Amino acid sequence: MFACIFFNEDASLSVVGKNNKSLKLVSDDWEPRGKVEMYWPGKVAGQRSLYHGTIIKVGDEENLNKFATLAYSKILKKQKGLNDVPEELFSFEMSSDESFEKRHRCKTKKMQESEEQEDTLSPKKKKKKDDGKKEGSKKTKMKRRKRRRKIHQKNSQKNKKKCPKNWKLCLKD
C-alpha cells in the first residue's frame, strides 16, 4: 500500500510505501488527510532531517506516481512558498485523456499532402512474395565453388604442391 504525501518543509509530493522504515504515522489513519513524519537524508552525509507531511491519496505506486507528477506540475509549481496543504490537491483528479509526454507530434497540412501525393503519384515497388525459396541460390553456390577451385588450382600450381583429393583442406592452410 502506497500513499502520495505532501511535505510541508519543501512543498513537495512524494510517493511512499506504508512499510518504509523512516515513515511514522502521527495519526493512526492511512487515509487522505492523515498526518505522517518521515526522516529524509540531508545535504550532509549521515545527517537526516524530520519532515512533516499529509497524506493526499492512497493507492498503487504506478498511479500515484502519475498523480504526483501531474498534481505538482498543475498546482504546486504555480504556488510558491507554501506552508500548508493546498485544498486543490485533495480534489485534483487525473483525466484519462491527459498524456504524460512533454510534446505531441502533429502532422502539418503539408506533411499530409505530401504523404497523399507520394501514395498516388509514385507508388513504391512491391516485392514479389516467395514460397520461402530463393531462386538461383543453387546456381550462386555452384559459382562460388567453381571460383574457389580455380583459385585453389592457381595457388597450388604456384606452390607446386600436390593437393589431396579433398581440395577444401588445402584452402585452410
Features:
single chain, 173 residues, alpha+beta, 5 helices, 5 strands, 36% helix
Provide an overview of this structure.
Among the domains are: 2-91, no CATH class; 143-172. It contains five helices and five strands. The protein has helices at residues 61-76, 88-91, 109-121, 137-159, 167-172, and strands at residues 2-7, 12-17, 23-25, 35-41, 48-59. A five-stranded antiparallel β-sheet has the order 2-1-5-4-3. Strand 1 (2-7) and strand 2 (12-17) form a beta hairpin. It starts with a strand and ends with a helix. The model has no long low-confidence stretch (mean pLDDT 78).
Q: What are the SSEs and their pairings?
A:
Elements: E1 2-7, E2 12-17, E3 23-25, E4 35-41, E5 48-59, H1 61-76, H2 88-91, H3 109-121, H4 137-159, H5 167-172
Largest β-sheet summary: 5 strands, antiparallel
CA-atom Rg in angstroms: 36 Å
Number of continuous helical runs = 5
Helix content: 25-40%
Helices and strands: which structural class?
alpha+beta
Shape: elongated
Poorly predicted spans: none
Oligomerization state: single chain
Number of strands: 5
How much strand content do the residues show? 15-25%
Mean pLDDT across the residues is 78
Report, as a whole number of angstroms, the end-to-end distance: 69 Å
Strand order of the largest sheet: 2-1-5-4-3
Give the SSE string. Answer: EEEEEHHHHH
